[in-house]
Amino acid sequence: MKNLKYFLMALPLAFLWSCSAEDGTEPGTATNPVVTMYSYAPEASSGMNADNDLIVRFATNNAVTELYYLVEAADAANDYIDKNGTDAYMQKVVEEGSKLEVSGAANVDETILDQHGAILVTGVACNGSNRSMAQVSFTGLDWNKVCSGQFTANNIIPGAKPCDLEICTTDKNLYRIKNAFRDGYSLKFTLMGLVGTDGNGLKFYPVRVPEAQTGYSVTVDEKPSPLWVKDVAYWQEDASFATDSEYWCIMDEEFFCEFNLAWMTNVGCIAYGSAGGGNGSSSYFVPDTM
User: Fold this and answer.
1) Which residues pair with 64 in a beta bridge?
2) N or C: which end of the chain has fewer CB within 10 A?
3) 21: which residues sit within 8 A by CB, 6+ positions away?
4) Are 282 and 288 in contact (CB under 8 A)?
């Protein structure tokens, strides 16, 4: 039996917002147009792909009469701003971007699809010649297949599911088991940079597993709840669990993986761990070559 260790996922979707420092934040008192922007990962049940799609919310104050946004490669946007200044870039957004229908204080959500690599979404709020700018960043992920295999998600979701292990093209430490749960619900994890050796002399790597939805629901206290997972270290907010052999998640050099996860619901954790600790059972990815 192979030794185990620990798992992490890098957020497919980065959350970042910024807004220009303009006066007028109380309703009815704004003198300059202001937009604040937020980005959100779509639910897999929506049919969108959180690795390459995002939802952007534009929150405007009551001074905004027009709103525009532009999606552009981050390097290109930053280079333009460095060479020409913020005012010139706002003019570019107005001329080349998309216009959103908004007047005054509002929250407008826009879906932005099929993005690859690092991008910036820039919003420009206008009121005549007065303008302000805000941005959110996002990195669209692409993947290459490492191997095929089967994923077994312990006794909470019975049965083995054929899946592919993939590596991110832009981050050599980021992996995912594609469609590990329901189709569209993958399990991502990140290598910690630590290396161990099991009893057979195989190297293994502790990993971290951030929150991942499974697409399944369970009944808890006679009420339905979505089911999601994360590693025990994230659940407990204690990184020491990530290197504890009773609770860790690992991948070895032949791509065999063992995950000791916390299974979460709206009322808390219903099972956790397994490698000698906790009340759950381990989940595994077993490559077809084994």
Assistant:
1) none
2) N
3) none
4) no
pTM of the prediction?
0.80
* Average pLDDT for 133-150: 98
- Could you tell me which of 188, 190, 153 has the C-alpha nearest to residue 6? 190
- CB-based contact 229:7 (threshold 8 Å): no
> In this predicted model, what pLDDT tens digit does every residue of 27-40 receive, in sequence order?
445 679 999 999 99
Q: What is the mean pLDDT of the chain?
A: 88
Alpha-carbon distance values, 109 to 39, 152, 212 (Å): 9, 37, 23
* Residue 73 DSSP one-character state: E
176's tokens: 């995912």
Q: Which residues contact 106 (CB under 8 A, 6 or more apart)?
A: 58, 59, 60, 64
How far apart are the C-alpha atoms of 249 and 8, rounded to whole Å? 8
Strand order in the sheet with 261-265: 212-220, 223-231, 261-265, 268-272
Question: Which two structure tokens, joined as six digits, stand for 171?
Answer: 């981050």
**Residues with Cβ within 8 Å of residue 237, at least 6 apart in sequence:** none
First CA to last CA across the chain, in angstroms?
Answer: 12
Main-chain dihedrals φ then ψ at residue 58, nearest 5 degrees: -105, 115
Task: Measure the CA angle with vertex 83, ends 77 and 85; round to 5°.
Answer: 80
